[in-house]
Design goal:
By secondary structure, the chain is mainly beta. The chain folds into two domains: 60 residues, no CATH class; 471 residues, TonB-dependent receptor, beta-barrel domain (Maltoporin, Chain A, Beta Barrel), CATH 2.40.170. It has six helices and 42 strands. It is globular. 33% of the residues are buried.
Length: 696
């Protein structure tokens, strides 16, 4: 034991004489060079920061190291958007399109490996009740510090979401006395306003106000073709108008200190979507339809994190929301109205325990209560959903280069209503991840997880929802939950400043929830069924390439997936390709031009395929006043008149072809402004920066 200590002291003494890249608080004469990635000496991986601290009787060490824009930790890949100097994203959706492993469709909904069954977290917190696109569109891009893509979540995360988790980490402007951020966009297809203001009462308490408004409008032109063996061909043509309005507001009080972190927030969200349509049938009959969907969202949440000691940290949170929904559809002045509401409460407890420098684990529990009410006409149907879970998740640092994580999670899920539904699931979910740092630039990993996806109320309850005049969605109370088994091999490498990630994967989903389409009098009814299984075999590729001293950047993502679906005697299979390309060129230090393009082949379903489309965006951006003011001009779909969605299904004894064009070519002007009054004490800023990293 004594010889080992002498060995470390000799090495550390040598380092002190040679290197000077890390400053030490409390003893400024001594400087050490540390590997910031694994928190160890450059010369000796066995000497970590704790060894250095003890050897020299130091109070604290501050590590200054270069952070890669993209970091690969095996089970999680991180895009450090806040440190990406070449990033010129004007929306958070733009940032997601630059994030490895993520594809974003035309509605702003992200997917991982072509699967939209994901969960969105904000600062490690779940926001239930809203769709992923609705959560993302409320977050200004200037507030995003980093985006984490967790393809194999540990047991501490909910088991729901067969494809993984996207965790958006926002900035905490602790070192600003006050700050203001606004993002205004005006365009031919819509406009928006993001604004937030934060104020620090002292070095612990702060308040944040955030407001978001979004309006959008577009025109559509559709053509549906029915080819039935007995009746021949029937055709339907339509012209429509879409209008959308979104308003949201958030008020958050925060307290941050060395040992604890407390937040309480109140959210309000409202969205209205309208669709007016005029269509003609093959008999030359002219019809008019009107569809309106309205969502309101009221949420209050509180969370508390405290470090009880150097070895134990606790995390407690509670949140509740109330979500009323309204759906109205009229056809030739004959109207149908539906009113629903969802009430939700979530409580969560987690404890992180550090057993040693090499082993730590999390254990905790979570409860979810959900109440659905249907106020349609004379009925007052109710459905109750409850989910209780407990877990243990352990990480073992075998060496500085080899890390193993595994965990197990138990979930009891109950769903009942007064009439048809009575479900009770007791499931065990588990995961295992091995991450090996071959060197500082190369990472290899093997990931395995068992996860689930449960049916939503819309998929379960036998209530009609009108999407358009010829498309009605109806729930199926006999649906069961999906169970997926996910396997992934990851390999990533930095070659200079070029980053490449390759991930072959295999996924088997038992009881896959899928659409099943039937027709009656040229009206399509979308029901939901459990397939026997779906098997996906594919590979994901991501490359971030930098040229000309980082003035020219290319981000390219490519997914190829071979899908096999089986239901009784019906089978469907096919290949799917997803392509996402971002090109950025820095004309001057404060002047950028960027091009985004997305090309995806159709998704494969049991009865056919749909959603083939191409989308592009071209933008110019100029920064003023040291980056505090940014003006951008953005062109949507500059190379074609709109986005074409295609559907092709074989339904019973006829085929159905649908082509819908969204005329969304347009121009937008963005004006982004931010300011903050910094404290003058540089040491306070440094301390708060470190505290911010600890609280994250």
């Amino acid at each position: 034991m004594r010889s080992s200590t002498n060995h470390k002291e000799i090495i550390l003494s040598f380092i002190l004489l040679v290197f000077s890249n890390v400053s030490i608080w409390g003893n400024p004469q001594k400087e050490i060079k540390i590997n910031a990635e694994n928190r160890s000496c450059i010369q000796c991986d066995s000497c970590d920061i704790e060894d250095i601290t003890k050897a020299f009787n130091l109070n604290e060490i501050v590590v200054y190291g270069k952070t890669n824009i993209v970091e690969d930790n095996g089970y999680k890949i991180t895009y450090n958007a806040g440190k990406d100097l070449k990033s010129n994203a004007v929306t958070t959706t733009d940032l997601l399109r630059k994030t490895p492993m993520i594809s974003v469709d035309i509605s702003g909904t992200p997917s991982i490996k072509g699967d939209q069954n994901i969960r969105i977290l904000v600062n490690n917190r779940e926001i239930s009740g809203l769709l992923p696109a609705q959560i993302i569109e409320q977050i200004p891009s200037g507030d995003v510090e980093k985006i984490e893509v967790i393809t194999s979540p540990g047991a501490k995360y909910d088991a729901e979401g067969t494809s993984g988790i996207i965790n958006i980490i926002t900035r905490k402007n602790i070192y600003f006395k006050s700050s203001f951020y606004t993002n205004i966009g005006i365009g031919t297809k819509g406009s928006h306003l993001f604004a937030n203001y934060s104020y620090n009462f002292n070095n612990k308490w702060s308040v944040l106000n955030s407001f978001n408004n979004l309006t959008s409008y577009s025109k559509t032109k559709g053509k549906q073709l029915y080819n039935e063996l007995e009746r021949g061909i029937a055709q339907r043509e339509s012209n429509g108008k879409n209008n959308g309005n979104l308003y949201s507001y958030q008020l958050t009080f925060s307290k941050v200190s060395e040992k604890d972190n407390f937040n309480i927030s109140v959210n309000y969200y409202m969205q209205r979507l309208k669709h007016d349509e005029i269509f003609k049938t093959h008999e030359n009959q002219t019809n008019e339809s009107y569809t309106k969907n309205e969502y309101s969202f009221y949420r209050i949440a509180a969370d508390y994190t405290r470090r009880l000691s150097d070895l134990i940290k606790i995390d407690i949170s509670s949140a509740g929301f109330y979500l009323p929904l309204h759906n109205k559809m009229s056809l030739n002045d004959i109207a149908n109205k539906y009113n629903y509401s969802i009430t939700n409460n979530i409580n969560y407890f987690d404890m992180e325990i550090l057993l040693s420098k090499k082993i730590f684990f999390n254990l905790g529990a979570k409860s979810v209560f959900n109440l659905f009410k249907n106020r349609h006409q004379q009925t007052n149907e109710k459905a109750c959903q409850m989910n209780f879970s407990t877990y243990i998740d352990a990480t073992y640092k075998i060496t500085n280069k080899l890390i193993f994580n595994s965990g197990i999670r138990y979930e009891n899920y109950i769903l009942k209503n007064l009439s048809e539904i009575d479900k009770n699931y007791n499931d065990l979910f588990f995961n295992g991840n091995i991450n090996y740092k071959i060197d500082n630039k190369t990472t290899a990993s093997f990931l395995f997880s068992k996860r689930t996806q449960r049916a939503s109320y819309a998929e379960l309850l036998p209530i009609e929802n009108y999407t358009s005049s010829n498309l009605i969605s109806v729930g199926n109370p006999n649906l069961n939950r999906e169970i997926s088994y996910n396997y992934e091999i990851g390999f990533s490498k930095y070659i200079g400043e070029q980053f490449i990630k390759i991930s072959p994967f295999y996924k088997q989903i038992n009881n896959k929830i899928s659409n099943f389409i039937s027709s009656e009098k040229n009206i399509l009814y979308t029901n939901h069924i459990n397939l026997d299984n779906e098997k996906d075999l594919g590979i994901s590729l991501w490359a971030s390439l930098n040229f000309f001293n980082r003035r020219f950047n290319i981000d390219y993502g490519f997914d190829v997936i071979n899908k096999h679906l089986k239901y009784n005697k019906l089978k469907s299979k096919g290949m799917r390709f997803l392509n996402n390309l971002n090109i950025t060129y820095k004309i001057m230090d404060d002047f950028h031009i960027s091009l985004f393009g997305s090309f995806n082949t159709p998704n494969i379903y049991l009865q056919g395929n749909e959603n083939f489309y191409t989308y592009s965006n071209l933008s110019l951006q100029k920064n003023f006043n040291e980056g505090k003011l940014r003006i951008a001009v953005s062109l949507d779909n500059p190379f074609n008149k709109g986005i074409t969605l295609k559907q092709k299904y074989l339904i019973g004894n006829y085929t159905y072809d649908n082509q819908l064009i969204y005329y969304n070519r347009g121009i937008r002007v963005f004006i982004i402004y931010k300011f903050g009054k910094k404290q003058s004490d540089s040491m306070t800023r440094m301390q708060n920066d470190i505290l911010k990293e600890q609280t994250n």
